[in-house]
């Protein structure tokens, strides 16, 4: 009997603040590559804009809809730092709902809460660097 090759499905989350550096099309291509690495495809798209979305309202709204996807792919971890530091509670919420989270730039993936715990030291370092950078600006 032949095994079925089950493809995963993902929600793509662009960063609208960097369209001047990376167009939506290029961001989509990068996120699509990550989806392919994870044996999946993008089936939904959305954008994150920190000016209007400091508290992750877009993803929180998406989560209330309980999309039938395996996870979310972000361009970079910075998208969880709009309020000045990593929103770990939001990451935990996504993982508790049994969704994966992947970040293209950092080549970082959390498939579950255990992955998050394993990477907590790295996230703390990243968080501290975000705080130092935002103070300089």
What's the gyration radius in Å? 15 Å
Shape: globular
Q: Hey, roughly how much beta strand do the residues contain? A: 15-25%
Number of helices: 5
Biggest sheet: strands side by side, in what order? Answer: 2-1-3-4-5
Would you spell out the secondary-structure blueprint of this structure?
Layout: E1 8-15, H1 24-37, E2 40-48, H2 57-64, E3 71-74, H3 88-96, E4 100-103, E5 108-110, H4 113-118, H5 120-136
Parallel strand pairs: 1-2, 1-3, 3-4
Antiparallel strand pairs: 4-5
Question: Would you kindly provide a written description of the structure presented here, covering whatever features stand out?
Answer:
The chain is of the alpha/beta class and 137 residues long. 39% of the residues lie in helices and 20% in strands. It is built from 5 helices and 5 strands. The chain has a 5-stranded mixed sheet, sandwiched between helices. A hairpin with a 4-residue loop joins β4 and β5. The radius of gyration is 15 Å and the shape is globular. The protein starts with 7 loop residues before the first strand and ends with a helix. The relative contact order is 0.16. The model has no long low-confidence stretch (mean pLDDT 87).
